[in-house]
Amino acid sequence: MKPETPMPRLEMADLRRRFGARTAVDGVSLSVMAGQVTCLLGPSGCGKSTTLRMIAGVERPDSGRITVDGRTVCDGALWVPPEDRSIGLMFQDFALFPHLDVARNVAFGLTGPKRAVQERVEELLERVGMTGHISAYPHELSGGEQQRVALARALAPRPRIMLMDEPFSGLDDRLRDEIRDETLDVLKAEGTAVLLVTHEPAEAMRMADEIALMRDGRIVQQGAPYNIYNAPADLAAAAFFSDVNVIEGVVRGALTETPFGQFLAPGVPDGTAVDIVFRPQHVKIDFDRGGRGPNPTAAEGTPARGIVRRARFMGAESLVEFQMDFDGSILKARVPSVFLPRVGMPLWLMVRRERCFVFPRH
Ligand SMILES: Nc1ncnc2c1ncn2[C@@H]1O[C@H](COP(=O)(O)OP(=O)(O)O)[C@@H](O)[C@H]1O
Ligand SMILES: [Mg+2]
């Protein structure tokens, strides 16, 4: 027997939503598989929350279709109310019920025999490491503990899909990383399909199996974090994940000539203006030897000289800004912090070819 293609737990097809003259969501199509965390990542205002709210059923799309396990919950004709969509929600203001203790908060959405409810509550509190606080009230808990209870509460009714909108943004940095990892473990153990919204690339990379990068109401790129980071679709996609350096070129014969040597531009027509884009951590630096740099190599091309204008020690690495001899522009490098050059020092920069992106300029 041929193995069947697994059915997406959640599917959106061409979702659209306008608010007056403003198109908040402009044709979003996306699938989320069981046991996977898919992340809608994009800058503030790009339409992430509106998309999530339409899936939850608290916002109506102007058009498009949403299916859960192959069952349509919303299209032009049909409308399933939020409580019948088997969707769990966890938002930034995840307020627990202040007058209920932890056990009753988690049991809130559960129905059925008392014994079964109690077992489910205990199972979840165990899973989120809150067994010791079963009778505590929310005001007696820290932010991180409240977050764990909120997760248990959202998961208690075994939702088919979990929607999370910036759920960790209220937590301080250290705690946030810990809670993110724990949350991920719990979600994986429950096998829930997760759609997580965030504007933070680091959070998306840490949590997601799949990232859908959103801009102006559309998904501009989708893929595993590794692929999105290492093969961005355009300059804006590259720049969303880190600082980038950009140098300009013009294509002649599928190549562009720059002060760092030649870059391949396969399939790009002659005369096209291109941006050569690379991240600061992919700049290699070398010492100046009486006005000369290292010899060119195939992987790193031609070295170009710059003068250190700024150097900051950041702990694990140093951030160094160079003013380039060739046109006075500023390029940034991140180098291991064993090295902190002084301002005014000449150094030679090389760019690793396999880490560069060449995009036609818009
Ligand atoms: N209820 C609303 N009424 C009017 N405009 C809205 C409403 N909800 C969202 N918007 C607008 O839609 C756009 C997308 O908002 P949102 O989905 O909240 O973005 P994100 O979550 O990515 O920050 C924004 O321009 C926002 O101002
Ligand atoms: Mg939002």
UniProtKB/TrEMBL annotation:
GO cellular component: ATP-binding cassette (ABC) transporter complex
Keyword list, A-Z: ATP-binding, Cell inner membrane, Cell membrane, Ion transport, Iron, Iron transport, Membrane, Nucleotide-binding, Translocase, Transport
A GO molecular function held by the record: ATP binding
Residue span(s) of domain ABC transporter: 10-241
One Pfam assignment: TOBE_2
Protein name per its UniProtKB record: ABC transporter ATP-binding protein
Gene Ontology BP terms: quaternary ammonium group transport
UniProt organism field: Histidinibacterium aquaticum
CDD domains: ABC_Carb_Solutes_like
